[in-house]
Amino acid sequence: MIDYEKDGAAIYRQSFATIRAEADLDRLPADVARVAVRMIHACGMTDLVDDLLWSPNAVADARRALLAGAPILCDVNMVASGVTRKRLPADNEVVCTLTDPAVPELARALGTTRSAAAMELWLPRLEGAVVAVGNAPTSLFRLLEMIEAGAPRPAAVIGVPVGFIGAAESKQALADHPSALEHLVVRGRRGGSAIAAAAINAIASEEE
Ligand SMILES: C/C1=C2N=C(/C=C3N=C(/C(C)=C4\N[C@@](C)([C@@H]5N=C1[C@](C)(CCC(=O)O)[C@H]5CC(=O)O)[C@@](C)(CC(=O)O)[C@@H]4CCC(=O)O)[C@@](C)(CC(=O)O)[C@@H]\3CCC(=O)O)C(C)(C)[C@@H]/2CCC(=O)O
């Protein structure tokens, strides 16, 4: 028999205690720290906190929007799948338009990725929505272009695409953007769909 922890609640408890002991959460506002714990939990990197950038109202505005029934717009299905439906305070719609049948042709016509083209289909739902980008840098760049062109403003953007091409740049562009969208970002190459979903799950629920 291998000796390992089998109690789910105990695993979570020990995990969160380890994160709180190892991560430098003190420099974060309390609401951001609560979300950061879950983001770290999703990736196992306690130094993730060193790369967090946030705007002052990002977590509060995202939470308020969810309570008011706002949809959650996700760049990829992996983010949408990671959102725990039972945590959502208003049975919020979780939307990923990436696999809409219109997207491949739209991407060809626009000369861009499917991830970016899929953003066009967000337009009817974008006003006041909570946006979660965990994978595709081109989605985040395209969102900023759409805002510059006068698209409706989301309540907040969780911007954590991962990777080497455009990831760091797209997140910095969000943080520095003149539109001052409320944002929570992991700067640099780190990020990913699991971190994006974990951030939404933390914002959606009041308890840990
Ligand atoms: C360049 C892309 C990157 N994808 C990365 C990492 C992962 N992607 C996975 C999967 C299954 C998907 N990625 C797509 C979004 C696909 N990935 C791209 C694109 C080519 C362009 C996006 C961009 O640069 O902004 C993108 C296709 C597109 O035309 O938009 C995906 C749609 C591809 C597909 O299966 O058709 C798909 C999303 C599926 C979904 O809806 O959930 C991985 C699981 C990789 C794998 O399969 O091995 C992984 C997941 C990472 C995560 O945590 O989300 C990068 C590294 C992010 C990279 C962008 C940056 C770079 O440096 O290249």
TrEMBL record:
NCBIfam families: PRK08285.1 (NF006136)
TM annotation in the entry: none
Keywords associated with the record: Cobalamin biosynthesis, Isomerase
Alphabetized InterPro entries for the sequence: Cbl_synth_CobH/CbiC, CobH/CbiC_sf
Protein name as catalogued: Precorrin-8X methylmutase
Statement: the UniProt record of this protein carries the keyword Isomerase: yes
Domain of life: Bacteria
UniProt similarity note: Belongs to the CobH/CbiC family.
Protein species of origin: Kitasatospora saccharophila
